[in-house]
Specification:
single chain; 278 residues; alpha+beta; three-stranded antiparallel sheet
C-alpha cells in the first residue's frame, strides 16, 4: 500500500523522533555483563526470549570481599618501636612485638598498638609554697616510656593525665620541704629534681601504671611578680625577727653570768661579815 493511499492511517508529515532503548533493556544488558564478569550462569535452555536472561552473579563478588576482609583482619605487622596487645572477646590474651603476626578475625580478636619505645612528654606551670613560706612559680616537664603495655592500657585511665598529676604532686611535696634559696640555686635544684623523679616513680609503681619516668626538668623557677615586693618585705621581717632574737640571746648570755657572779659575791661578803661579828 502506498504511503498516500486512503485508509492507511499514517500521516507522512507526522514524523516523531524515535525513542531510546527501554530502561529494562539497559538494566538487563548491565546484568548480563556483570554475570559474565563474575561467572554467572544463564537460566533456561533457550537462547532467545526471556528464558536466556542472565542470573545475577553477586555470590563470587561477596566471597572475594569476605576473603579480603578476613585476611586484612587476620594478618598484621608490628613495628620495632611498638607492641600489639591482643584481646579475645574483649579480654586480654597476649602481647605481640616486632614482626609479622596473625590473629583470629574481628570481632573474635582485636589488637591495640602501644608505642613502647617512643617517649611521651608532659609539661605544666604551677605556683607552690616553699618550706620558708615563700611562693615560687615552676615550669616543669617530664618524659616517660611505656614499659608495660598491658598495665599501661588496663590499669590506669588516662595515663598521660595521670603522669602529669603525679609529677605535680611530687614537686609540690619536695618544694614544700625546701627553702626558696635552695629551689632557686642551680646546685640544690638538682637535688629537687632527683627527689621529684624518685617520688613520682614510686607513686606510678604503686598505681601499676606500667610507666617509667626518664627525666624531670624544671625549666623556669621564679618568684611571682605579683607577690615579689610583699614576699621581700616578709622575708625582711623574718630576718629582723631572727636578728633581734639573736641579739637578745647574746645579751642574756652576757648579763646572766654577770648577775650570777654579783649575787655570789654578795653572798660571800655576807658570810664574811657574819663570821667577823659573831
Amino acid at each position: 500500500m502506498a504511503w498516500n493511499e486512503p485508509g492507511s492511517g499514517k500521516n507522512p508529515w507526522d514524523r516523531r523522533p524515535s525513542q531510546g532503548p527501554n530502561l529494562d533493556e539497559v538494566l538487563r544488558a548491565w546484568q548480563r555483563r556483570l554475570n559474565a564478569l563474575f561467572g554467572g550462569r544463564r537460566r533456561g535452555g533457550g537462547t532467545g526470549g526471556t528464558g536466556g536472561t542472565a542470573a545475577p552473579g553477586w555470590g563470587p563478588l561477596f566471597a572475594v570481599i569476605a576473603v579480603v576482609l578476613v585476611a586484612f583482619s587476620t594478618f598484621y605487622k608490628v613495628d620495632a618501636s611498638e607492641a600489639a596487645v591482643i584481646q579475645r572477646f574483649g579480654k586480654f590474651d597476649r602481647v605481640a612485638y616486632a614482626g609479622l603476626h596473625t590473629k583470629l578475625p574481628w570481632p573474635i580478636e582485636t589488637r591495640r598498638i602501644v608505642p613502647v619505645r617512643e617517649y611521651g612528654s608532659t609539661q605544666d606551670q604551677q605556683t607552690m609554697l616553699t618550706k620558708d613560706a615563700n611562693l615560687v612559680t615552676i615550669e616543669l616537664g617530664a618524659q616517660y616510656l611505656r614499659d608495660d603495655p598491658v598495665k599501661y592500657l588496663f590499669r590506669v585511665q588516662n595515663p598521660e593525665d595521670t603522669v602529669l598529676q603525679v609529677v605535680e604532686a611530687a614537686i609540690r611535696e619536695v618544694v614544700g620541704q625546701t627553702t626558696l634559696a635552695e629551689v632557686l640555686a642551680a646546685s640544690s635544684r638538682l637535688v629537687v629534681i632527683d627527689k621529684t623523679k624518685e617520688l613520682a616513680q614510686k607513686t606510678l609503681d604503686n598505681y601499676g601504671a606500667g610507666i617509667r619516668i626518664t627525666t624531670v626538668n624544671l625549666t623556669n623557677v621564679n618568684v611571682p611578680d605579683a607577690v615579689r615586693d610583699a614576699q621581700q618585705d616578709s622575708n625582711k621581717a623574718v630576718e629582723d625577727r631572727g636578728r633581734r632574737i639573736a641579739e637578745a640571746q647574746t645579751y642574756r648570755n652576757d648579763i646572766v653570768p654577770k648577775a650570777g657572779g654579783a649575787a655570789q659575791a654578795q653572798v660571800l661578803d655576807a658570810q664574811a661579815y657574819k663570821a667577823r661579828v659573831i
